[in-house]
Hints:
The protein is mainly α. It has one domain (13-148). The chain is built from 6 helices and no strands. The protein is flat.
Amino acid sequence: MSNIDGVATERVQYFDIAKGIGMLSVIVGHMELTSVNAFVFTYHMPLFFLISGWFFKDAPGKMKKNMRHLLLPYVITVLVMGFVGGLKEFIKECVKRNGGDPLQIFWDTLLSGLYGSGSRTDTLFGFDIPAIGAIWFLLALFWGFILLKK
Length: 150
């Protein structure tokens, strides 16, 4: 087998096996079996990002580019989500006087951003961390590049 430059390369079987396990886990994870999802969602997509990070080739300035293109949008989005969520709760509290805590909403969103979970984690190990939403993949891909760069 050869790559795009015509240089001979060999496939690494355990990466193919890991990708296969990941693909099957994605299928099982979307079958909506709550007890299975709590386990599968802890690793199935991060596995793909870790594999991507393994094959990432570091080039001069690439880390800065990744921080600018992956981490910066993630951090900005988390802060905006926290601010908007807190503001929404503040307005709701002012209008309905329901005793909501806007500051708690903001801190919960920041906690979600630090953890970077795409779904709520209250069924996993007893932690109750709200989901950050679809932007979790930016943080996962960034850490995949950082942890596994060669």
